[in-house]
Structures are given as C-alpha cells and as structure tokens.
C-alpha cells in the first residue's frame, strides 16, 4: 500500500471533503495509506512539500501570491478546489433574523486577521457597502483565542468558521447572523496543493479518484451521515453543532461538484487581493493552478 501525507493549515468542518477522503476510507479503498497532520505554521506546509515529506496540502491559491510578487515560483501548485466560497460565519450576541451588514458600523468585531480571512472579510464588507473603518476590528489571535475572547465577553460579533460558530450557538453564547460566502459569491478560497513532481506520479491520480468520490459523498449525503464520518476529528464539538455546520456548508454551495479550480474563481481571488493591497499585478492562472491529475 502506498502512502500519502496530507497536511492542513487549518482545522474546520469547512474542509469536510478532504477529511472525508481520509476518514471515510476513500483513500484506503484506492490503496493509499493516509497520514494526517495539522501544520503549526504555513512554512511547515511549504517545507514538507519541498522536501517530499508532504504529498498533499490544504492551502489556498493566495498562498502563492507572496512568492510571485517577489518574482519567484512557489513549490506549491494547486490542482483541485476544496471550497469555492468563503466559509466564515459572523456570530452575534443576539439572534437577528433581520441582520444587515450596516449593523456592524460602530461595533466591535473579533475578526480573523489571517491574510486571506481578513482580505475576504474586507471584500464582503465592500460588497455590502460598508466601510471597514466604520467598525472596530479586534485581533484576538488565532481562531481558538478568538472564540475564547468572545466567550469571555469581548466583542459584539466574532468571525469564525464552523463548527466553532455553531457550537457557540448551541451553547447560547452567540447566534449565527450571516455567512460571508453569501456576500462574496464564488471565489477560489481553499484548495489542494502539491509539488509538480508528485502530480506526475501514479499516486496523484489515485488520490484524485478517492477525492472525487469523497467530495460527492460530502455534497450529496445527509449532514448527519457526513458528520458521522468526520466526527472523529471534532471530539471537542457537540454532534448537533457539527451536523449544523455541515448542513450550512452544503447549503452555501462551498463544495461544488466541479473539482477543477476555475479561472473565473481564480480571477475573483485576484480581485479580492488586489483590493486589499496584497498584490500589485494580476498573476497568471497557469503559474498557480493545474488541471486535476488522472482521469475521471
């Protein structure tokens, strides 16, 4: 049996299609033994792919922009999408069925200050006609620290992925009021990346067959059944919160049936990062993305 080390930069039910690929036995059924790990820093992913100890990384096309801005080429190339929508959720102190983004003006928002989450949040505000400078954005640290800060009473709203957002709601600490993905629309948000050399190997095609089948499972199956498969990765989360988060991502359309990273979604990401000031030029799709390996 071959081996495939999958490393992720973040841990969330947002990445369910990849978690199902491993935890649902889809890789094993194709003859690949999976090793799963969570990177301590994004540099761990780059180093692992570069030295061959990591075969597949959960990443984002924007991870390549820094190197391209310096005139260099990243060792990562992106071969399939995980999410074609922003998967962050706004959680408020009170339930608000009539929420509008205008209500964020003058409020304290604990915002994920990671480069992509912050750029996308600012773009969502822009799409909703709200100036980022009209709210008080709080940097409380990593997602776990953000959640704890909100639990401790800091902020009027918090900007989180699932299932943390749904766990807060289940406990009555907060209430989901908006999904950023509804405001932004289709975008190349998170993707699978690897080295160009590994993508030429037989294992790449094998991995892709497993991923396609797992992705179909994540899209089509009842959220309860999907949660049963990925539940082992979320022991600290109530099952109902996990189910609710999976259902939310299915309804949002994050996991579209097409695995290819479309040029249109890539262009939208360029627009987001140009607006945030993180890039100075529109980098070519071909320098960042390739077609999924293997045959359908």
Give descriptors for this structure.
globular; 2 domains; five-stranded mixed beta sheet; D-Maltodextrin-Binding Protein, domain 2; 296 residues; alpha/beta
In short:
By secondary structure, the protein is of the alpha/beta class. It has 13 helices and 10 strands.
Describe the structure in your own words.
- The structure is a single chain.
- This protein is of the alpha/beta class and 296 residues long.
- The protein has two domains: 2-85 and 187-287, Periplasmic binding protein-like II (D-Maltodextrin-Binding Protein, domain 2); 89-184, D-Maltodextrin-Binding Protein, domain 2 (3-Layer(aba) Sandwich).
- 41% of the residues lie in helices and 17% in strands.
- A five-stranded mixed beta sheet has the order 2-1-3-10-4. Strands 7-6-8-5-9 form a five-stranded mixed beta sheet.
- Helix 5 (115-127) links the parallel strand 6 (108-110) and strand 7.
- Helix 5 packs across helix 13.
- The longest helix has 19 residues, at 202-220.
